[in-house]
Amino acid sequence: MQTAVVIAFPELSPVVDAWRERTSADRTSMGIPPHVTLLHPFVPSEIVGESLGDLRKLFAATPAFHVAFTELRR
How far apart are CA 5 and CA 7, in angstroms? Predict the structure, then answer.
């Protein structure tokens, strides 16, 4: 199984889910909420747990910021 680092935006579901279902190859979002992919592939799934602490530290040190989505892309 592949892993990825994503930032989920579940509040965008009402706006983008119909588009995602129409444009995905298998006509499904595979249970993944609207998101921005930061890194893919990440690490092998067998060792992903070992990286979670480092990711938490990285993101905790990053100040919050506002983001606006002006178009949909894949």
Answer: 7
- Give the model's confidence band at 28: pLDDT under 50 very low, under 70 low, under 90 confident, else very high: low
Alpha helices (H) in 1-74, listed in sequence order: 13-23, 48-60
- Average pLDDT of the segment spanning 5-13: 92
pTM of the model: 0.75
Is residue 74 a contact partner of residue 23, using CB atoms and an 8 Å limit? yes
| Preceding amide of 14 cis, omega within 30 | no
Return all residues near 42 (Cβ < 8 A) that are at least 6 apart. Answer: 2, 3, 4, 5, 48, 51
Query: Alpha-carbon distance 20 to 8, whole Å?
Result: 14
Q: At 7, is the secondary structure helix, strand, or coil?
A: strand
